[in-house]
Amino acid sequence: MAEEAKKLAACAAVDKHVQNNQVLGIGSGSTIVHAVHRLAERVRQENLTIVCIPTSFQARQLILQNGLTLSDLDRHPELDVAIDGADEVDTDLNLIKGGGGCLTQEKIVAGYAKCFIVIADYRKKSRSLGEQWKKGIPIEVIPMAYVPVTRALTKNFGGAAELRMAVSKAGPVVTDNGNFILDWKFDKVHEWSEVNTAIKMIPGVVETGLFINMAEVVYFGMEDGSVSVREKQPR
């Protein structure tokens, strides 16, 4: 059921926001697989000219495997649209991302897009961060600094931070950038914009999985087969 919900959200977003002659940011994760399949289908059927910028090794492989045009930020430093998934979305469209370990490149690509679109299934829809997602906020760190960063996180913000360990290799998860990931399990709701900025000021932190004030619209595939749309509200 969740897989079908992911597909519904992905297809709705691609059909609504993708047009001819665009530069698209392609996110990472399981929901993006459906978006790329739908994108490739539309490119073939409508003879669209689309250039794709990946956010990870996985995204790069998806683009190539589906016969789409691969490029990079050197050649296309400004994107029309970026489409990506999320681990959790609150009512203000704040996101937790990075469950798949690709948060830094995902944030770079989303940040240089004119419009950032998020696709997810019903399990990711929350009122506040931490309501559904219990694995913490991913924080990418320089390997030599993971111990002092861990201490700084818990001292300054409470909760607990753990080094993410790999499943099919000995030792920690290593990102596409050669860094480690800490998963910070917070114990209260924070002012996320302030906390995001403060964490990024800790020496050794590369990026956080908090995506604040970035998403324009989120498409949720629901259990009943519908698609729920949550849009950014004017401030």
UniProtKB/TrEMBL annotation:
Its EC number is 5.3.1.6. CDD domains: RPI_A (cd01398). Keywords: Isomerase, Phosphoprotein. Pfam families: Rib_5-P_isom_A. Pathway: Carbohydrate degradation; pentose phosphate pathway; D-ribose 5-phosphate from D-ribulose 5-phosphate (non-oxidative stage): step 1/1. It is an enzyme of class 5 (isomerase). InterPro entries: NagB/RpiA_transferase-like, Ribose5P_isomerase_typA_subgr, Ribose5P_isomerase_type_A. GO terms for cellular component: cytosol. GO terms for biological process: D-ribose metabolic process; pentose-phosphate shunt, non-oxidative branch. One of its GO terms (molecular function) is ribose-5-phosphate isomerase activity. NCBIfam families: PRK00702.1, rpiA. HAMAP family: Rib_5P_isom_A (MF_00170). Belongs to the ribose 5-phosphate isomerase family. This is Ribose-5-phosphate isomerase.
